[in-house]
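User: Please fill in residues for this 182-position structure.
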């Protein structure tokens, strides 16, 4: 009979995610991951099959956290433009740190080779989910005449996504909100 796990999976994924975020996939060693998570090498392989498996699940954990903390700002009863301002303002505030860690999704795309289609597909699906949320808010703004009615919602949402992830790359070089806003 298999021994029961003696760790909290969410905590392990959070700790591993922080290592990947700080060091990148290639820079994170199994030793770094065992030290951060408190798991033995064998436990990591038993649970996640490989460093890559742990990395992929850490990305999914990161995205789930983003959805809970940040995407929820795009939902609710507030006026659409107010939701968008809060969403982007929260991102600006979040990236005003000394670590200049940026976004784990963006860091991953910048680090991994362009032929890593599995990761690119996962991150693309995550970006698409955000784009759909933004499209919904923009559609609501259009209906409430908070934006021009002739605006192409899909195009504007894509531009906002490009801005958002460009901002996340730029955030790695600037630490103050004032520098990012100008």
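Assistant: Residues filled in for all 182 positions:
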């Amino acid at each position: 009979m298999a021994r029961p796990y003696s760790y909290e999976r969410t905590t392990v994924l959070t700790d591993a995610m922080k290592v990947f975020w700080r060091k990148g996939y290639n820079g994170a060693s199994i030793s770094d991951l065992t030290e951060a998570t408190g798991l033995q090498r064998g436990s990591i392989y038993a649970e996640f099959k490989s460093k890559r498996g742990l990395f992929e699940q850490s990305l999914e954990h990161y995205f789930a956290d983003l959805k809970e903390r940040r995407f929820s700002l795009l939902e609710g009863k507030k006026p659409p433009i107010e939701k968008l301002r809060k969403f982007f303002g929260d991102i600006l505030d979040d990236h005003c740190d000394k670590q200049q860690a940026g976004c784990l999704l963006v860091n991953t795309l910048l680090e991994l080779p362009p032929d890593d289609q599995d990761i690119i597909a996962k991150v693309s699906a995550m970006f698409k989910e955000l784009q759909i949320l933004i499209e919904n808010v923009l559609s609501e703004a259009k209906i409430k005449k908070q934006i021009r009615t002739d605006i192409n919602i899909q195009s504007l949402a894509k531009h906002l996504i490009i801005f958002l992830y460009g901002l996340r790359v730029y955030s790695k070089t600037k630490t103050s909100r004032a520098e990012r806003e100008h």
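For context: The chain is about 70% helix and 0% strand.
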